Queue: 4 jobs
Job 1
Amino acid sequence: MAEIAYWEAIRRAHDEELAHDRMVIAMGEDIGVAGGTYKATSGLYQKYGADRIIDTPISENSYTGIGIGASMAGMRPIIEIMSINFALLALDTLINAAAKIRYMSGGRASCPIVMRTPGGTAHQLAAQHSARLARMFMSTPGLRVVTPRGPLDAYGMLKSAVRCNDPVIIIEHESMYNMRGEVPDEETFRPLEGAEIVRAGTDVTLIGYNYSVHLCLAAADKLAAMGVAAEVLDLRALRPIDRDTIRRSVEKTHKVVIAEEDEATVGVGAEIISVIIEECFFALDAQPVRVHAADVPVPYNRQMEKAAIPNADDVLAAALKVLGRV
Amino acid sequence: MNASDQKRLLREMIFYRRFEERSFEAYMERKIGGFLHLYSGQEAIATGVLERAHCGSDYVITGYRDHVHALKAGAPAREVMAELYGKETGSSRGRGGSMHIFDPTVNFMGGYALVGQPFPLAAGLALACKHKGTDQIAICFLGDGANNQGTFHETMNMASVWKLPVLFVCENNLYAIGTRIDRSTAVTDQYKRVAAYNIPSSQHDGQDIDIVMAAATDAIAHVRSGKGPYFIEFLTYRQRGHSMSDSNAYRSKEEERLWMERDPLKIYGDRLKKAKVLTEKDIAAMEKSVLEEIENDIVRFAEESPDPRVEDLNKYCLDDQPDPRWIGPLAQGEHHG
Ligand SMILES: Cc1ncc(C[n+]2csc(CCOP(=O)(O)OP(=O)(O)O)c2C)c(N)n1
Ligand SMILES: [Mg+2]
């Protein structure tokens, strides 16, 4: 078991899958000769060549479409889009094509592509580089959407995504690429479905995904110091949502906070609260609280940006609120 | 062009270079955050083209490498620097930052992060000019890499069919971040690509401001006369990395050396010296006065300006003072149930 960075975990998954199956290719801007904006494909161009590590022009919609077409003919493309904001340019091929091809062909065609893209705020990148958009993909039937919170899932979910026969969107995070964590030395696959209890507790459930899991964990530490045992649940997949694990946790703690880095409107928290109401409304002892970004485009100014994006103290405050401690 | 205009132009280019290099320093001091894309090496293009435009009246739009375009279009340097600092006095009130400089008072309609996005926006600005029947035009500055977006092709087609008064200026600096043009682009001469849309075009040296101005004069005359769009390509080179985190590892030292010799400031400065418009000493004095202006006035203004107030986070998301007639809510008597 070695401790590696998130980007190294992604790189390793690429390397293993490229070695395992000649049909696996990687595509994206600056991923080859330049080694990748996040180093997730560094050295692979030298190892696998230009035919399999493909540097694309800045043509998101069409190279995604090319990846989709190739996947329909048996290939397994891993497409990197530099930022989820740029993935908006590929929505036509992703949502109108990839998400629907299996269905509208009556199951006779499929497109096993993987699209990887960071979808979080970094530091002062301003409105056009800071939209999170996970909620948009999670509302699209025909896609799988996963949100690895650390190196193990970043590695193991990418490997599963490559093997899986559905289109999979992997939402990474610009602020997590250097985050370190343990990954087994032997080949490991992590499931594309299923929430994970990353810290067990009895008093309140803190639900997060991707980076916000870390906000929940930090808040749980502070709560522990106050004598509160918080349970932290990582959704891991935003589509499909693991309703059972959520229900079981709420039936145990009766109190819920949902932390999302995105805006709240028509968002992850809204969906999770609907799930809870449908699954176990009567288990709730308090109104659920959403911790979320301000409902504005992300401002450039540092203090303004901080104010717009939730942090661990916001999660803590929300937990105290559902616990009736304020 | 008379001697005083020539001196002014040289000083402007020196100013733009120092402005960019000073913002580099401020970035290293962490006073500027986010992404910062510098224009050093490409100054002759924005300066030369906009010298021939009606700045303040013609619309100008570009990508994220936008400081100099904004400045030459007429945005006050203090406000542009203050924007880089994220201050309330900045061109975009601290909300946009380096990539999103706006100054609608001079019709500088913004810097955009999404590669290729300004193409249709520029055509739209031109459509408005045509519709209003003014003699204004729209000028769109973008890089070589942008021409591989679908928006390029779609916009060229519509601009051509609708004969829109728009000048597309392609600043071909041979790279899109770390990807050299021939590795991403089938036709590396960008001006040839618009032939498919029946748009007249030409290619020129972008390092020599006299060549840039001559070419821009013709192109702008064409567009302003109502004959439709024109596409002008300038060959150039960025002297620094794509943005602050880029070390240019993908470029050869030899290539960089050759282009550094073709520095637009040096080319123009040498020409003016040779023509005895000014001396080496005059240029040194110019450098000095530029540095002083930037330090004592522009940077100082940015540093001393206040941050936006966090209470104003929701400001500018929508119109702060909408007319209730259009916004509602429904009054009592308006419910038709
Ligand atoms: C839609 C979109 N895709 C990718 C990017 C990332 N990106 C930013 S600049 C750039 C290269 C653009 O090159 P070019 O148009 O030649 O302009 P230059 O930076 O050379 O001035 C890329 C790929 C982006 N900002 N927007
Ligand atoms: Mg370029």
Note: The radius of gyration of chain B is 21 Å.
Job 2
Amino acid sequence: MSEQGAQSIPLAERLAERLNPVLVRELHQGVRSRAFIVALGLVLLANALAAVLIAANLSEMRPGEPFLHALTTLISALVLVVPVRALFAMVREVEPGLSEQLLLTRLRPRRIVHGQLLAAAFHIFALTGLFAPLLALTYLLRGVDVVAIVLGLGLAAGLALALAGGALALGSLARVRALAPLARALGLFGVFSGAGVATPLILEGLGDLVQWYASDPEEFRNALLGMLGALVLGLWLCELVATAMLSHPFENRSTGFRVHAWAVAAAAFGFVLAAVPQRFLDEALPAAGAVACALAAPVWLIAATEEESFSPRVRRHVPPSRLLAALAAVFLPGGGRGLLWVLCSAALLLAGGLGLPPLLAGTPADPAVAVVLAMVLLYGVLYAAVGRVVRGRMRPGLRASWLARALLLGIALLGSLLPLLLDAIVGGGIERWHPGHILDPVWTLVELRRIRRAHDPVLILGVLAALAVLAAAPSMRRGLAESWHAAAARRGRARPAPAAPAAAR
Amino acid sequence: MSAPLLEVDGLSKSFDGVRAVDGLSFALERGRITAFIGPNGAGKTTTMRIAATLEIPDRGDVRIEGISVLEEPQQARLRLGFMADQFVPYADLDVEQYLQFFAHAYGLRGLARRRTVASVIEFCGLGDMLRRPTTGLSKGMGQRLHLAKTLLHDPPLLLLDEPAAGLDPRARIELRELLRELAAAGKGVLISSHILAELSEIADALVLIEAGRLVLAGTTAEAQRAVREHHLIRMRVLEDNRRAERWLLTQPQVREVKVLDEVHLQFDFTGDERAMAELLRRAVEAGLGVVSFATEEADLEEVFMRTTRGVLQ
Ligand SMILES: Nc1ncnc2c1ncn2[C@@H]1O[C@H](COP(=O)(O)OP(=O)(O)OP(=O)(O)O)[C@@H](O)[C@H]1O
Ligand SMILES: [Mg+2]
């Protein structure tokens, strides 16, 4: 019997083999779980209820309204069921005993996260399928066109996927056992508040979007592209966070974030170039640079406050070739290299914000926005460099890195609050901005237009940032040297040992 | 010459100032069952978790068939099966689904996957409970499923952390049989316990640790020889046991002298029988008034007890 059974593997099994194992497991678990029965019952009930309500009030409804009601029910189900399920699935996935068993297999953390994301996508698909009869029925009642349906379903799916991605990222924080309750609470709060804000926006904006499509398809396309890009980049970031949480502190958890930050910057510039009319580029491009920097600020600070040296695991994976090692160095883990990456990022954003307008629009960047860009970049560089110096004085270890980050926040807070306090006590009141407030990014940026020339904040901040970078320079030099030596060591290892001495030994 | 199956090399690991493992080194051979013995908190679990790539040492390294777990954990993982001290089941998954999932995760496909899953089910005797939920298994059944999962990718090295804990005598015997078969198939097995008796019958070799440090490593025969060289001696003197104690403390091979009562003393002695006879002669010559002089025989259990009191160090 076993012979016969072994000869022919059922098609379903062969198909399942090609899927992500975590997805297959989630589906198996889903079907058996009690939550599934409850959710299914609730969804069917919502379906029936919506159908009854629509039918009862049909005579008073405008054309298209029944579909909107059906869509509302679908979105509510999607944004509640899918992300919450994803959150709890992830919290369970990172339980110490379970995740460790899994990491010993051939599954890499990223594939585990992908499996969870795919499971969320599958649940969106399945739920939408459950609502298909209701949607079809309301469609037959007329008043909606295909564009509205596709758009409505697409937005609903996108929102549910985005929320599920966020839930997975927050759920993965439970890998640190002390954070597990916080991860659950934050995850639920994030899902509910995100759903609460975005759902009405989608439902109310749907009509406008459809009209937009009719009146200006080009602009509409850009808006859609922008949303899609944001979704992709957001999901990517969620994937990176969850993967980092699942990975060992010894693995490379830095490169992905650094590449992602550059992708965000490229997307910001790309979106501006595609969507903004040429005559506004002189303002929009530097603004895009400043926004990209602000978005990347956490990654900048984390990169600069990493432990300085390679872990043995990462050292083994430095590219052996001299050229590649030099190019990849700033993307490799380590605080010194991280700060170098920050400097490269700042230079690129500056080049993009100030260099692209004359190239592409024929006008220089708007000076007011250019100053904002310069200030934002300088703040990023200053605090990253200070973070590197602080981290450099601490012991190795992940805990010290997070302590350094907390200290950095403390320094920024003190740098903002102390001058205010001094003003209030010594000066008799907080009058107006003066250079003593230069460490306060928020107030300085808000006041920027009103600050007198004599107090040129760019100059002051520039000097401070340069000093901080100078203080962190040895660490950057060591970071480069380390990756250089690691590459050389790999080349040495790859070369076959000379025959004679080996034999002699 | 091929690299040893498992090589623990100068391993150290602290947790918040507590030294869990402290400069530990030993090696493991293929086809042997090695008992990894130490009292609670000796660092067995920590050592195994480092070897299984799950924990990072402060110093030192572990190599599996020459592959460093620090540098190439992915390669190392394919060569080891780690059975943690606790089996954590998946909710809402039955035994067969559980094994199929892990087989899938280990990259087994098609007929190979089916055959492997079928063979571990048969080997571990899980055939009757394929439809049972993994959360509803007894301790023994859970351990069997855990072992089955550990064997799926056919690793040459098995690291089993207290697999027998909580099993009834019959399940223990069954586990012993399974381990014997695995060792006969050429696998190296490192099996930890703080109960030596549990392992003394099946283990071919012994690694004894205490407070993260190696106390003794070798074959069981070597361990027994070590026992033979370490005698617990009881001596009775006519009177003045204090003087006898002072004299004993000046003898190089004598340690841990205890005064039991007015006339009885007990001490540890390192050396063969000739050396023991010499000691007795000198005691008599020193005029201690020796009335009786006898060794107490020790078994493996006692080696464990005595060595972990620090006698052998
Ligand atoms: N994650 C941890 N955090 C803090 N201390 C730990 C941790 N893991 C182990 N220890 C400490 O390290 C020492 C060794 O523990 P380990 O679990 O390795 O011992 P063991 O030999 O397996 O003991 P047992 O027989 O009780 O299982 C103990 O003092 C323990 O308290
Ligand atoms: Mg233990």
Note: Chain A touches chain B at residues 2, 5-6, 9, 14, 16-17, 21, 24-25, 28-30, 32-33, 92, 95-98, 100-107, 248-250, 311-313, 315-316 (CB under 8 Å).
Job 3
Amino acid sequence: MSGSKISELRLDHVSRGFGEVLALDGLDLTIEGGEFVALLGPSGCGKSTALNCLAGLLPLTGGSITLDGRRIDTLPPEQRGFGMVFQNYALFPHMSVRANIGFGLKMAKVGKAEAQRRVDEAVRLVQLGDHAAKFPGQLSGGQQQRVAIARAIVLEPALVLMDEPLSNLDAKLRLEMRTEIRRIHQTLGLTTVYVTHDQEEALSLADRLVLLREGKVQQVGPPETVYTEPANRFVAGFMGYRNELELPVSPGSGTAVGDKTVVLGDLTGTRREDLGETAVAAIRPEDFTVGDGPNAMEVDVEVVEFQGREQAVQARTAGGDELHLRVQARLAPGDRVTVSVPPERVLVFAADSPAAPEEVA
Amino acid sequence: MAAPAAPATAGRIALRHRLADRGMDRTLLLLVPAVVFIVALFIYPFVYGLQLSFQPQPGSETVQRYGSGPFADYHAFFADSYLRNTIWTTLKLSLPAGLFNVIASVPIAYRMRGKFRGKRTITTILVVPITLGTVLTAEGLLAFMGPTGWLNRLLIDVGIVDHPVRFTHNYWGVLFSLIISGFPFAFLLTLSYLSGIDPTLERAAATLGAGWWQRFRFITLPLLAPGLAITFCLTFVLAFSVFPSAVMVGDPSGTTRVISIAAFHAAFEQYDYSMASAIAMIMGAVELIVVGLVLGWRASLYRGASGGKG
Ligand SMILES: Nc1ncnc2c1ncn2[C@@H]1O[C@H](COP(=O)(O)OP(=O)(O)O)[C@@H](O)[C@H]1O
Ligand SMILES: [Mg+2]
């Protein structure tokens, strides 16, 4: 069992409102067969809504979904044939692991011998051999997750939907299952839409990211592009540009269209959108280096956290702005050091564009 | 002399720890009022009635016919077909009533488990019969379904029947009244059991290709079945002790001469308290047998968590 069963899934202006609120506002997306797409955004941005619309669990209030030219958004979930992994796993508690995995095959009236063979194969794929006869209540979180994945993929669905499948697991297991999901995708090549609020998870798993904010798409692209060239301040904040310095745009330097380099007060950066009077410079903690160089500034070290090869440092600029740094140099609180950052690593956005929420920035 | 004191203290602490290990600590004292309450209101009357049932009343019919041995009243009950048959009469009413209430409440509760506008109104209307009590329900039933009631007038006016149909003062009148008073309980219980089942389970089943009937049949029903067993037991027990409606809308000397009427008759017309106690004990035993059978079946079902959340 391998290879995708579809060539193209198209979402045209898919919208879903709850009363006055548009939880999903005109999502346009074309997914190719075998692709692994991650929907990424903070809590409440409409990720689950998008997934439930795809699965058929929520009717659309606008737009259409077509699978290989066939319109499917009016079909009930049981006729779409998409597999779904739920955040709380939603395993049937009164059925054994085997019966859970075999449920879809039973509904599809697959013959007993054939069903048995495919369940065995799925059990092997998710490495649940010793637990196949147990009930969900007797399994750990990670094992339940494996059952949920096996149950969703045993039918080799045209599309696999996963709604924050790892968010209920502890950090170590999360990493382990992440690799597992990637491995299963590489083995089976099933087209997958994966929802998460964890940018690291999305970056490491997906072929393509879709960033959502308040139901609207902010950027679509491969992980590398989204990571290095975030389209706006929100995406930058989500992609680890933790430092945001609001500065006046220097007269005569950066407003010219076509010129990518912009000077903001003492900083030189790379312009990502049209700017007004003031702008925001977004810088990743790990892009700073200790020592003189471009965009040098003097900072006072306030808090130092040991993080193995690196230190996470909280410092303050002469202007009173708080800076987060990740540096290899060993600093101590009270040190006054010079740090620098190359201009291409300083992304400049308009100050009035929306920022990412605090907890992810 | 601190040395000898130490082991004693250690022993006391150890005892307290050992008790705590078995879930025994001072908070158990909070149970005292409940225990007193249960003993005073349930266990004492039960034990009193039990011992009374083994002491046939001197001069009663039982003693004249079956002597004054401890089981004479029980012997008299089972020897007399008029008394013995009250068990079947009561079962014939309470089993169908309990079964109907449970079966009817499932689809209604199933439709109503989600949130929708007017749910509270509908629930209130369905629950009103509980607050009315059996006597008022019986009176209402007489007014509505009696020979000159609205229902019969309607049937005659529409031309479906020529003569009033007898809905009351027979088996059906009592069955209707048991359904009216028992259904709200069954419905409320079923609704709460249903809302304890995680709705994403059915959604998961839908994505796996299950239509609505299959989702109900393979997911919801098996998870609901243990709750339905309890619901059945409760409505059955309620119906088994039927008294007012059996008298008011039934045929209390014939087809609806239920066991509680027999007990009432013994106690307050023949003044044979010992016989009445024996009948009450038999009543309890029959209920226990039915409930025991149902719970035995329930024990064979899956009864763990159903991923419950509202
Ligand atoms: N059933 C619902 N009724 C009303 N509003 C809802 C419902 N489901 C989701 N929403 C709203 O839609 C928005 C998006 O929700 P959701 O898709 O669950 O976000 P996410 O999965 O990204 O955290 C939120 O603002 C949420 O409050
Ligand atoms: Mg969600």
Note: The pocket of magnesium ion (ligand 2) is lined by residues A 47-48, 164 (CB under 6 Å).
Job 4
Amino acid sequence: MSVKHALLALLEQEPMYGYQLRAEFEQRTGTTWPLNVGQVYTTLTRLERDGLALAESEDAEGHVIYRITDAGRVEVATWFTTPVARTQPPRDELAIKLALAVTVPGVDVGTVIQQQRSATMHALQDYTRLKRRATGSEPAELAWSLVLDSLVFAAEAEIRWLDHCESRLRRAAIERAAPTSAPTSTPTSAPAAANERSHR
Amino acid sequence: MSAVLELTDVTRVHGEGPAAVQALRAVSFRAHAGELVAVMGPSGSGKSTLLTLAGGLDRPTDGRVVVEGVELGALGNDERARMRRTSIGYVFQGFNLIPALTAAENVALSRELDGVAARTARAEARRVLEEVGIGDLADRFPDDMSGGQQQRVAIARAVVGERRLILADEPTGALDTETGEEILRLLRARCDAGAAGVLVTHEARHAAWADRVVFLRDGRVVDETGAESVDLLTEPAAR
Ligand SMILES: Nc1ncnc2c1ncn2[C@@H]1O[C@H](COP(=O)(O)OP(=O)(O)O)[C@@H](O)[C@H]1O
Ligand SMILES: [Mg+2]
């Protein structure tokens, strides 16, 4: 995550000091991606070094207030208008774990899938519970609710993928058991489908 | 907590001989007052079968279905139909509204059939329509409403008369994400107010509104996710 850009975007609203920036960040994203104050100050120092922000003044309590520069504004605008790169998918521990579970002998993949699905469902229930309460239309609350939506969609996708893995594994097991009756070129016609005639 | 719905070792076989399909195999399942339970599973896993049995729309091949302490199998057809009008609310995926009746009339119908005076039933219907957020559409016909509005009418119809068991089969199926979410909010509110709810869905995002999620595969319960919170996140602090 680009802490640098997130902080710059907040500074574009108004000059702020470190703690304030962290609070404003969390107001919008919950504690989904916690920022520690040390991280905030390191980033501010770097922003200043790169000419994107200026340590301006101290308020009555001695907080150092940072202000965005013109170069900083350009940087924020570029950030907002450039899509997040998807060229390098983040390393997905779950996908890697399943890939290994399928190939390493003695691992019960079915159990791995089921346990993960329960855990992800739990998380999804938690997000949904939080979402139920986040109904306001104020910008900050809306921001938080959209972050929750993002987590909800990601968890949902993971559960769908786990379901998909489970049925593919079952089909593969049936094909291995009866290789002649299920030509590998048409996996969708495997016998597993026989008891799953759609009936809605 | 008392179980409003209790299925014990319920099996349902469709057809006979080699063509027989075991839609449910010895499934035990409960829904308590104040609880929303989601039933998930791929298509063909027996979700609708479970719901129609719970709603008294079908009879099990084996096992017991008990609603509010009454075993549905022990009832005659008339008594069962009465139970369906008074204790059990059913929400179908396709809304199933009667096109020739207005929203209020659709909602009032089962109450009127049950002997409630027409005036009282209509007044009740308007109140519930208000509750689900479409009080102003009470005199509209289904064809003049959006899918989401029709589904709200269907929910109003399912909950009118303080029914204690609400059964919903893919109630969000044809709706967009946001409208679907509003429907879940309504179901959830009804359960928070004391009803027991069973929500059949194949979408995890919707199942997550439930307190408990039961996974069906080939007519069997294979997994169950409880309600304890993991507290992964906390809300943003108030300003
Ligand atoms: N009336 C019926 N006659 C024959 N088979 C049926 C009937 N109803 C359901 N089935 C079969 O029972 C199984 C479970 O169906 P259903 O409960 O509708 O599943 P789901 O709702 O999970 O998609 C499926 O294999 C389906 O084809
Ligand atoms: Mg179904």
Note: The interface with chain A takes residues 21-22, 42-45, 48, 93, 170, 185, 188, 203-205, 207-210, 213, 215, 218, 222-223, 225, 227-237, 239 of chain B (CB under 8 Å).
